[in-house]
Design the sequence.
């Protein structure tokens, strides 16, 4: 017993300073691919090798040809970087990629829901995890949030055991056929106002699973999503960033 | 016994009594290919298992109607002493999609046969428990998603159906349904407990909620494209799955990767084992509310995952393996970072486990709990730490060495008790062995090309790649098509073998012990469901 206390005291505080201070990954991290427009010849090889159609090159006579990358579809595999003959692409260190759904995607404005939740509950938000067919990587990172290093309770978030106690659902996975009914039931068991966060590239867009006999191709095919947190899986810090975005909390 | 002796003996024993075609291994290959008529399949499988001591490590269906006009089933065996893989196959004509079930002679075939029935519509006649496994009750009849003429994106309507759990009756017997959505941050599955008071009489589990059609997705992909799928079968086994897939392709094409790539792959395998084992030893404490162990374990696991990210850019070691080698190198600074981290984590992990194992209240809960019997583990081919904690002395790293394992010295710990405590102790011992393996690899990092070009895929050739993940063997079967693309990719994870034995360990325990027992196996759902 004494050795246990001694170990706890000797361990000290291990909690990260994120989000008060930025946490930039080391060089070599597989963040969002970044393009140097000057070097790019728009040859299209990057979009050819992309398995999830994350890269789009649109040809428009009036506005010129445009290159775009949708983080919600990106697997962060780096194939595009390797395929680029000009060296115009590199894996950046960018990982805070949470984005709010556009108005057309959600019936209710997520801003309204967020402010209602905030008004009612102040800084305390209860989260329920909902696995809609994930590979378990997003789950591991969410579990990590409750551990000593990321400790999201210090930011007013906590995970609860029932959707009936939740203000926010973090949904992982592309929504498989075998979970679709459970996903809908969990959603309806969550009292309004509620915020839906799609966690990971599968939940954001279907990712590698796409749309198939077994997969709906993303949470927004089934539920109104408010916030997307891309990543395969997202870093724990990216999850914190997304949750703060969802609650419109400042750093 | 050498592999040639074994091959010769099989041919001598079987050819007088049945038509069987034996293809001997070539010098670069450690595989014997066997082909027989479906009428002989069960007898041949029984002979290999019972007479020759071969283990069934994988069984799969394949729709080869466009190649040979029929379906085929494949059984992959390993023979440990001879270091040999045997792949037995038999054609099953579409007009008569029935074969005699192998399960009565080889119990480890029980789930595979149910899965093949669900996905291909091949009926194992005489199977003792023929219920649905891979498709759920609302999946309509006569729809077989892995048949080649079933389109990937087909929308299948829901039908009305029923799944019958085995009835448990008697005075005071209650049922407790749990899941698929659980209370923690974990994956989905359904558990049906039959209890009297707190005592569990029987447990049944229902899986395949996270079935994402990954094997269907792999069809028609190039080796490089297929890698992204293999890597995403499971988060916590990303590296061992991607490596097993690469090994299958390299065997298929006769590609030999460089010794440096082998060394980096070995490091990846052990780094994956470390963050899993350390995290598991901590997380098992969560099963009894021992927060000190949970949090200390979580902290050390986080240290290991941060190390993964610093070294390779991914906390789950994704993006390293590629068919033909690896995509990431390791410099000397990184090597010393690994050694520094290991020496700190090793000391702390030793201290932590000493404290945990000295706690009376912890021992009280884990000792004798969730007993996996040796005979069940052995007959149903349980794998990994769970099997080794029940006296099954099997580890692919030693028995079928891949990557750099043949050159390394390590011990395979085996315990006999088979309870939660044994599974914890086994992981602790393996953690230290793992660290020693990493030090050996780093002590003599060989030079070599990171990646060589994969040779072209020979049409309709097939091969098996196997790795020992933190949870046990992962077996990947890959068959090439005519166009240099993948025709069939079947993934048999460690969880596939171990989930069926988990329910056998619960009766006789109380309901609150289930989370603890479950955590001591720490199986993946997505690994199984695919």
Sequence:
């Amino acid at each position: 017993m004494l050795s246990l206390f001694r170990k706890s005291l000797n361990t000290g505080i291990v909690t990260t300073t994120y989000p008060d201070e930025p946490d930039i990954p080391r060089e070599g991290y597989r963040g969002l691919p970044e393009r140097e427009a000057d070097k790019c010849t728009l040859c299209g090889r990057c979009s050819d090798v992309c398995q999830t159609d994350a890269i789009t090159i649109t040809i428009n006579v009036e506005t010129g040809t445009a290159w775009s990358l949708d983080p919600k579809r990106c697997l962060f595999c780096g194939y595009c970087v390797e395929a680029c003959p000009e060296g115009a692409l590199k894996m950046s260190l960018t990982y805070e990629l949470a984005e709010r759904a556009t108005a057309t995607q959600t019936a209710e404005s997520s801003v309204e829901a967020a402010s209602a939740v905030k008004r009612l509950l102040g800084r305390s938000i209860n989260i329920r995890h909902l696995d809609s067919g994930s590979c378990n990587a997003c789950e591991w990172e969410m579990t990590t949030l409750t551990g000593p290093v990321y400790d999201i309770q210090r930011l007013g978030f906590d995970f609860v055991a029932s959707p009936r106690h939740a203000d926010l659902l973090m949904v992982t996975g592309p929504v498989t056929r075998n979970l679709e009914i459970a996903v809908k039931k969990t959603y309806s068991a969550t009292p309004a106002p509620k915020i839906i966060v799609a966690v990971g590239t599968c939940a954001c867009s279907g990712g590698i699973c796409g749309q198939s006999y077994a997969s709906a191709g993303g949470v927004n095919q089934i539920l109104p999503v408010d916030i997307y947190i891309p990543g395969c899986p997202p870093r724990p810090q990216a999850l914190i960033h997304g949750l703060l975005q969802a609650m419109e909390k400042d750093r | 016994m050498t592999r040639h002796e074994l091959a010769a003996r099989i041919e001598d024993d079987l050819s007088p009594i049945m038509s069987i075609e034996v293809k001997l291994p070539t010098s670069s290959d450690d595989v014997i290919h066997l082909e027989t008529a479906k009428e002989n399949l069960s007898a041949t499988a029984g002979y290999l298992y019972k007479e020759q001591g071969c283990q069934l490590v994988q069984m799969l269906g394949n729709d080869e109607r466009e190649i040979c006009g029929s379906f085929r089933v494949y059984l992959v065996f390993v023979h440990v002493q001879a270091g040999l893989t045997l792949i037995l196959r038999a054609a099953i004509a579409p007009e008569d999609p029935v074969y005699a079930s192998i399960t009565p002679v080889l119990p480890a075939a029980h789930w595979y046969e149910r899965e093949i029935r669900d996905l291909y519509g091949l009926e194992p006649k005489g199977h003792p428990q023929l219920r649905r496994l891979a498709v759920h009750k609302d999946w309509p009849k006569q729809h077989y998603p892995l048949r080649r003429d079933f389109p990937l994106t087909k929308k299948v309507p829901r039908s009305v159906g029923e799944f019958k759990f085995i009835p448990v009756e008697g005075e005071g017997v209650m049922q407790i349904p749990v899941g698929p959505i659980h209370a923690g941050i974990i994956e989905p599955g359904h558990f049906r407990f039959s209890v009297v008071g707190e005592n569990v009489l029987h447990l049944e589990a229902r899986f395949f909620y996270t079935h994402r059609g990954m094997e269907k997705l792999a069809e028609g992909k190039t080796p490089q494209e297929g890698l992204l799928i293999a890597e995403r079968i499971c988060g916590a086994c990303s590296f061992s799955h991607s490596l097993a897939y690469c090994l299958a392709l390299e065997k298929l094409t006769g590609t030999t990767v460089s010794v440096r790539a082998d060394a980096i792959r070995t490091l990846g395998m052990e780094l994956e084992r470390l963050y899993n084992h350390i995290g598991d030893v901590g997380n098992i404490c969560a099963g009894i509310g021992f927060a000190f162990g949970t949090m200390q374990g979580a902290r050390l696991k986080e240290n290991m995952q941060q190390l993964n990210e610093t070294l390779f850019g991914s906390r789950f070691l994704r993006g390293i393996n590629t068919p033909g080698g690896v995509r990431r190198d390791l410099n000397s600074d990184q090597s010393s970072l690994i050694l520094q981290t290991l020496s700190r984590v090793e000391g702390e992990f030793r201290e932590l486990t000493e404290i945990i194992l000295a706690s009376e209240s912890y021992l009280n809960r884990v000792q004798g709990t969730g007993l996996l019997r040796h005979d069940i583990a052995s007959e149903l081919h349980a794998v990994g730490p769970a099997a080794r904690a029940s006296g099954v002395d099997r580890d692919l790293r030693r028995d079928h060495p891949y990557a750099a394992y043949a050159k390394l010295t390590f011990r395979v710990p085996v315990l006999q008790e088979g309870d939660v405590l044994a599974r914890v102790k086994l992981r602790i011992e393996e953690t230290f062995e793992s660290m020693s393996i990493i030090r050996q690899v780093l002590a003599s990092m060989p030079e070599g090309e990171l990646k060589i070009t994969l040779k072209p895929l020979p049409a309709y050739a097939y091969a098996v790649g196997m790795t020992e993940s933190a949870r046990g063997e992962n077996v990947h079967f890959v068959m090439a098509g005519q166009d240099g693309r993948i025709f069939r990719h079947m993934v048999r994870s460690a969880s596939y073998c171990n989930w069926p034995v988990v329910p056998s360990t619960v009766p006789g325990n109380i309901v609150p012990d289930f989370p603890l027992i479950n955590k001591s196996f720490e199986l993946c759902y997505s690994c199984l469901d695919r």
